[in-house]
Amino acid sequence: MELNVLMYLVPAIVMFGCGVYGFLTRKNMIAIMISLELMLNAVDINFVVFNRYLFPGQMEGMMFTLFAIAIAAAETALALAIIINVFRAVRNVDISEISKLKF
Amino acid sequence: MDYSQFLMMPQEIGLLTVFLLVFLYDTFMPERSQRALPAFTAIIFGLFTALTMCPCLAEGGQAFGGMFEANGATWAIKLILSVGTFLVLLMATKWSNSEFISVRRGEFYELLLLTLFGMFLMVSARHFLLFVIGLETASLPIAALAAFEKRRYESHEAAAKYLFTAIFSSAILLMGISLVYGIGGTLYFNELAMAVALDRSALLITALAFVIAGVGFKLSLVPFHLWTADVYQGAPTAVTAYLSVISKGAAAFSFLIILAQVFGAAYSDVWQWMLYALIILTITIGNLFAMRQRNLKRFLAFSSISQAGYIMLGVIAGNAVGMASLMFYVLVYVFSNLAAFGVIMAVERESGKTTIDDYNGLFRTNPWLAFTMMLAMFSLGGIPPFAGFFSKFFIFVGACQTGSVAIYVLVFIALLNTIISLYYYLLVVKAMFISQDDCVVPAFKSACGERLAMVLCVLGIVFIGLASCLYAGLNEASAAAFPAF
Fold this sequence. Notes:
The structure holds two protein chains of two kinds. Chain A is mostly helical. Chain A has three helices and no strands. Chain A has helices spanning 5-25, 29-54, 60-90. In chain A, α2 runs antiparallel to α3 (60-90). The longest helix of chain A has 31 residues, at 60-90. The N and C termini of chain A lie far apart (56 Å). The mean pLDDT of chain A is 91. By secondary structure, chain B is mainly α. Chain B has 19 helices and two strands. In chain B, α3 packs antiparallel against α18. Chain B has helices spanning 10-28, 37-52, 72-96, 105-124, 128-146, 153-184, 189-198, 202-219, 228-234, 237-263, 268-291, 296-317, 320-351, 362-365, 367-381, 387-400, 405-433, 448-463, 468-481, and strands at residues 61-63, 68-70. The longest helix of chain B is centred in the middle third of the chain and has 32 residues, at 153-184. Chain B has a domain at 271-485. Chains A and B meet through α1, α2 and α3 of A and α5, α6 and α9 of B.
C-alpha cells in the first residue's frame, strides 16, 4: 500500500486537536505542558510532510522544523522552571490552586 | 558569504552591543559598583537611542537573501520602541536597586534588552522563520521577567498564565504558518503573496484564521485577551509597563506587514471582515470591563485591550496612511501609558497601594504625580490639546481612506467607544482631585530616574500632537516603504 500525504496529515491534525483539548481541560500543569508539546510537534509533522511530498526540491520546511524543535525545547525549559517556582510557592502543580488573580 | 550585509542592520547591532556591555558590566564589575548598573544601562541605552535617531540610518536595504529588510518605516518603529524602552529603563532604576530585586538586577536588564532585540527582528522580518524566531525571542523572556519578584505570589501566577498562553498562541500561529507553507511552498513574504494570489482555497482561509488568532493572543484582542488582566496585575510594574506598550507596538506593526504583504490584496476582503469583528469586540469589551476595575494595573490592562482595538484600525486600513497613523498611535501611546505607569510605580513603591480608591486626594499630597496622571488619562482618553487626540484623529482618518461604508460604520462605533472610555479615565482623575479620604498616600519625593522619565512623558504628551513634522515624517517613511509590499 502506498502512503500518501493524507496519512500523515490526518494524524497531525488529530494530534493538534488532542493538544488543544488537553490544554483546555487538564488541571495539572505538567499535563498542560505535554498537551502544548503535542500541538507543537503536530506542526512539525505538518512542515516535514508538506516539504517531503509537495515541494521535494527544497529544504525550507525541514529547516523550519529544526528551528521549531529548538524553540519548543526552550519553551519547555522555561515552563518547567516556572512550574517549579509555582510549586515552591503553593506546594502544588494544580492550576486551580493558582487562581487568586480574578475579576 | 558576504559579511557586508550585516551593515543593513545597524539598529540590531547597536542593541546587541548595548546588551553585551551590560552583560560584561554585570559579570565582571566588583560588587560595590553593581548599584550603578541601572544608571549605566540607562545611559548607554540612551546613547544608543540618540545615535540611531540619525536619519542616515533610514535608507536600509535587504539582508540574508531577503529574509531581513530595513527601510524608513522599520527604522521609525524601532526608534519608537527604543524610546519607550529607554523610559522604562529610567523608571525601573529605583525598583531594580530595591532589597530583593538587587540580587538579580543584571538579569532584568539583559532579558529586557534581549526581548527588544527579538522585537526588532520581528519588525524587520520578511520571512516566516525569522518572524517566528523574533516573536519567540520577544515573548519568552517576558515570562521570566514576569516571575521576577520571587517573594510575591502573584508574580508566579502571572508568569505561569503568561507562559502557557504564549506557548499556546505560538502553537496556533505555527499551525497557520505550516498551512500557508503547504499552499505556497515558500516562507518568503513576497513569494508567498504571489503564490497565494493564484487560487483561493478554503485551506488558506483557515490558515489566515490561525495566523490572526495566534497574533491576536500576543496583541490581546478580544476573545484572545483573557490572560491580559491577570498578567498585568501580577507582574512587576516595570515589566507590565514594558509589556503593555513596547511588545504591543511591535506585534501590531508586524501584524500589519504580514497581513498587507502576504495575504495582501487577494484576501483583503477575508481578513478585513475577520478584523472588523475583532475590532468591535475588542474596543467594546475592553471598555466595558475597564469600568468595573478597582485595581489600577488591571484597569490599565483593560484600557490597553481597548487601545489595541484602536491600533488595529490602522491595520484594517491596510494602506500607507494606516501604517503611518499606526506608528504615530504607538508613539503617543508609549508616552501616555508610560506616564500612567510611572505614577503607579512610584506610588506602589512608596506605599504598596494600587487601587483607584487609594488615589483619593492624591492631588493634595503629591500634586505633581496627580498632574502627570491626569495628563496621561486625558491623552489616553483623547481630549483635544493633548497627543492622544491627534493619534486617534489620524488613525480614524487612515481607516476612512479605504472609503468603504463598512469602515465608516466601524469608525463611528470606535468614536462612540471613545466617549465611554472618557468616563472611566475621568474616574481616576476624579479620585485624585475631588474625592476625600482619611488615609491619603503621604507626600513623598519620587526617585530621580522616575522623575526624569515622567517629565519626558509629560513633554511627549503635550508636544507630540503639536509637532506635526513628526507625523509628516512618519507618513513619508511609510509611503516610501509601502510600495515594496
